[in-house]
Amino acid sequence: DGVTIAGGNGRGDATNRLSYPLGLFVDDDQTVVIADYRNHRIMQWKNGDTTNGQVVAGGNGGGNGLNQLQYPTDVLIDKETDSLIICEGRRVVRWSRRSGTTQGEILIDNIDCWGLAMDEQRYLYVSDTEKHEVRRYQLGEKNGTLVAGGNGKWDGLNQLNEPTYLFVDRQQTVYVSDNNNHRVMKWNKGAKEGIVVAGGQGCGNALTQLHWANGIFVDTLGTLYVADTGNHRVMRWTQGNKNQGTVIVGGNGYGAGVNQFYFPYGLSFDRHGNLYVADRDNSRVQRFSIE
């Protein structure tokens, strides 16, 4: 069963509330940062303090000022610079985590970004839901290199249809939530097309199917975890079995119970193997111990 570690107090903008939490990132000390979409801010919740979070970016209304965010969808922590990198509006921005930070800087603009990932060489990967592609950027560069999709919006193996969340492994393999194709794609480094690793059997609730794929995480064995948003469940797909996954949490209809979700979005793990899920319409983040 899930434990609420952030929010869960109804929708709102007080520091104990969230409003449509989407992407999230868990630091080594189990601090969780959350893209609080409708509040136009990033919230940070420290491990053990489940009553209140703190605003660590934005929170000044929605807008494109340097002190503002506009509907943030994903966030990660860049440990090297101790900063947050955030997808929001039509740009990717960076906010220092040092106290007293009141504004961010623009890293990439004029991009319809949704999801973010960073590899061990500190390359940044960004999904673009308008161009249906994923690009890799060196920090400071504006154009990037195409690494997935970019061949129009459809369901070919070289195409994506509204890619949302990303995961990149040590080999710079890019996993993409291909949201409107109801599948997860794996693009090996330098590949011209992807491989379906989950779903891709149309939209539905069978174990072979997904209904809007969102947050993803891949462990060192190559096991994939995916937030199956429209089915209100989290699924696990193992390497050897591409045909169907297993439900590890949820799948009990939508609701606010400890074993239920109401549109799960972001998904991450801490280094102790606990699963974290941003439960969008319940305005909470749930933590689970996974066997």
TrEMBL record:
GO cellular component annotations of the record: extracellular region
PROSITE patterns named in the record: NHL
Record-given protein name: NHL repeat-containing protein
Stretches forming NHL repeats: 260-291
Coiled-coil portions: none
Species this protein is from: Rotaria socialis
Keyword Glycoprotein: yes
Keyword terms of this UniProt record: Glycoprotein, Repeat, Signal
InterPro entries to which the protein is assigned, alphabetical: 6-blade_b-propeller_TolB-like, NHL_repeat
